[in-house]
Design a protein that fits this description.
Elements (H helix, E strand, L loop, with lengths): L5 H23 L24 E4 L2 E5 L15 E5 L2 E4 L5 H23 L5 E4 L5 E7 L10 H6 L23 E7 L1 H5 L3 H4 L8 E7 L6 H4 L7 H6 L16 H21 L8 E2 L3 H9 L61 E7 L4 H4 L22 E5 L16 E4 L7 E2 L3 E3 L17
Parallel strand pairs: 10-13
Antiparallel strand pairs: 1-4, 2-3, 4-14, 5-6, 7-8, 9-14, 10-11, 11-12
């Protein structure tokens, strides 16, 4: 048994006292003087305006008809709602913007193939601390040598087989372009009893999705049986002349997948710079869409305010079907370049006409009677194994190039099934603003984008 001498005891005491004093000094050095001041050195509160998006301030608006219900749908009434601030794309998502999504999915498939068969540099199998990643992550730094001799052989499976090629053109097989992503069902979690949430397995709320993301270019033919639209079917999504036209042939499920990708694409960049994650990109709710479309002008039928479809010079203010089908009188035969017509007072283009737009809401004729007046929304996740088929009907707003003027009114409600793609429906994204107003956190901050 060891014997502790008096000298040893004094040394232990001095060491312990020094540790206490060091700890005390360390806390005192924080500058809070023992008071509640919150966690210090938090990231900057500044939230930069996403490029190409318009800030919509929080506010209240009276939704509903401001003109005669010509179709006698009786699916809307005057209804005052309040919404928090959010961002919205100033135009519909264009062909070139959506093509970035298509290319990302294509490149991710190519990198997966190269990592598995040819070049391990396309795969990251350890984190920054040397710990194994299971499964490994794709490395996006190396460039893909599409014309390389070995790469051409390995990546051949991404292309159409020989017997399906037209004039022997080597083209990507678009049937392989599948985006895999996850969603978490917060609504289901909120409906669980508070005492039971402690034992909830988070994995039970996470669902994996697989979505074919390539636009249906044949809608130009299938939508109009007795019309010659073959040139649009062949070139609309790919020809550079149409780069800044709104993407069409995208159904509601594909539009949702695009927004999930857009969120994760931005968050990956922010994480690389140790910045907080961004708010999610989503399809706008029906209320968000109408609030933004009105541009701060309450009780007006169109985004530009007045009851007329022409300006003082007699020019049409949107792309739609005027009179008895004189399409060219609006300046376009089909869709038109995004942003061609004047914006509303929020700076949003084409909130009426050009293409109709998906919203995230399921369509219900009586929603204006049971929806909440605080940022109203309606269940939009459709589960075919559980939910009634009616939930697969999604609200479409704004009217399109093939619609008459009634459908351009900001209050007109219509729907389409979520798995339907057409040549006259596109979409734009929104992003909820994290706070009251964008000027609240601007001082002394820099743009993270």
């Amino acid at each position: 048994m060891a014997i502790i001498t008096e000298t040893t005891m004094k040394k232990i005491f001095l060491i312990a006292l020094a540790a206490v004093l060091f700890t005390s000094c360390n806390w005192l050095g924080r500058g809070d003087r023992g008071h509640l001041v919150g966690v210090q050195n938090r990231p900057d509160a500044f939230y930069a305006d996403p490029p190409g998006m318009v800030f919509i301030p929080m506010g209240s608006v009276t939704l509903g008809p401001s003109d005669q219900d010509i179709a006698y749908t009786q699916n809307a009434r005057s209804w005052t709602v309040s919404l928090p601030a959010f961002y919205m794309d100033e135009t519909e998502i264009t062909n070139n913007q959506y093509r970035q999504f298509v290319y990302w999915v294509r490149d991710s498939l190519a990198r997966s193939i190269l990592a598995a068969t040819l070049d391990p540099d396309f795969e990251i199998d350890e984190d920054e601390f040397g710990e194994p990643l299971i499964p490994p992550l794709l490395n996006w730094r190396p460039q893909i040598r599409w014309g390389g001799e070995e790469e051409r052989v390995v990546l051949e499976e991404l292309y159409l087989p020989e017997q399906e090629r037209f004039f022997r053109r080597r083209e990507i097989d678009t049937r392989l372009l599948v985006y895999r992503y996850f969603t978490i069902d917060l609504r289901r979690a909120a409906n669980i009893e508070p005492n039971e949430r402690r034992n909830l397995n988070r994995a039970d709320l996470i669902t994996q999705h697989e979505t074919h993301i390539y636009p249906d270019t044949l809608v130009w033919i299938s939508d109009f049986t007795y019309s010659y639209n073959e040139p649009m079917a062949k070139q609309y999504f790919w020809h550079p002349s149409f780069d800044h036209y709104p993407v069409v042939g995208v159904n509601w499920v594909q539009a949702r997948a695009f927004n999930v990708w857009r969120t994760q694409y931005l968050n990956s960049y922010l994480a690389s710079r140790n910045q907080p994650f961004a708010m999610d990109f989503e399809l706008p709710s029906e209320a968000q869409w109408e609030y933004a479309a009105r541009g701060g002008l309450d009780l007006n039928p169109y985004p530009w305010g007045g009851p007329y479809l022409r300006d003082q010079e007699g020019c049409f203010l949107a792309n739609f079907k005027p009179m008895r089908g004189r399409y060219a009188d609006t300046g376009a035969m089909y869709t038109n370049i995004a942003g061609f017509y004047p914006p509303n007072d929020y700076g949003l283009y084409d909130m009426a006409g050009n293409v109709s737009e998906w919203t995230r809401n399921a369509y219900d004729e009586s929603f204006y009677y049971f929806g909440h007046d605080l940022s109203p929304d309606y269940q939009y996740e459709f589960n075919p194994d559980v939910d009634p088929p009616a939930l697969s009907r999604k609200v479409v707003r704004g009217g399109s190039w093939k619609d008459i003027g009634y459908f351009l009114q900001v209050s007109t409600r219509s729907y389409e099934f979520q798995d339907t793609a057409t040549s006259y429906i596109g979409f734009r994204s929104v992003q909820t603003f994290p706070g009251r107003d964008r000027d609240d956190g601007r001082r002394g901050a820099s743009n993270v984008y």
